[in-house]
């Protein structure tokens, strides 16, 4: 790992370290000093690469939300029929709630920031917009919006429940929401 001036990956390491710390300690427990130590960079690198903690957090959460959207795009992009798209939606719910505690914590930390700060609200709106675009490859816009909300809600419920629901409940919910799409086909 390069640590001198010629360190093109330094900015990326800082962002990765910030996400790791947020997942472990929350946004409130994340500081420039802790991020720099975790990334293995001098503290001065923080202000060189980012104007402040808000810029670092926006960059980190933008990367995180883009990674989740990539999962949406990959799974929904592989579907070629409405039934395959429904299966992909069920897979998303179960993938997003399958015990990846880091993703769950990062999602909730971003939601908390978005509830308080407009810049993060815009970031979450963009995340939702991009998720719906992936869903709209297979479903009308209203159905895509409902599915997107259902994916988020069921993923959160499954991840936090002591006895998460099984796939049959997810499949039934998807069928109910997409029933009107079938009538138009």
Structure description:
It is a single chain. With 185 residues, the protein is mainly alpha-helical. Helices cover 77% and strands 0% of the residues. α1 crosses α6.
End-to-end separation = 55 Å
- Rg is 19 Å
Total strands? 0
SSE sequence, one letter per element? HHHHHHHHH
What spatial form do the alpha-carbon principal axes imply? elongated
Given helix and strand content, the structural type is mainly alpha
Tell me the number of helical segments per DSSP (H or I, 4 or more residues long): 9
Which spans have pLDDT < 50 for at least 5 consecutive residues? none
Helix content bin: over 70%
Q: Largest sheet, if any?
A: none
Mean pLDDT: 90
Strand content: under 5%
Features:
185 residues; mainly alpha
Q: Topology, pairings included?
A:
Elements: H1 10-25, H2 32-39, H3 44-49, H4 53-77, H5 82-96, H6 101-116, H7 118-135, H8 141-160, H9 167-184
Helix pairs in contact: 1-2, 1-4, 1-6, 4-5, 4-7, 5-8, 5-9, 6-7, 7-8, 8-9
What does this entry show, briefly?
With 185 residues, the chain is mainly alpha-helical. 77% of the residues lie in helices and 0% in strands.
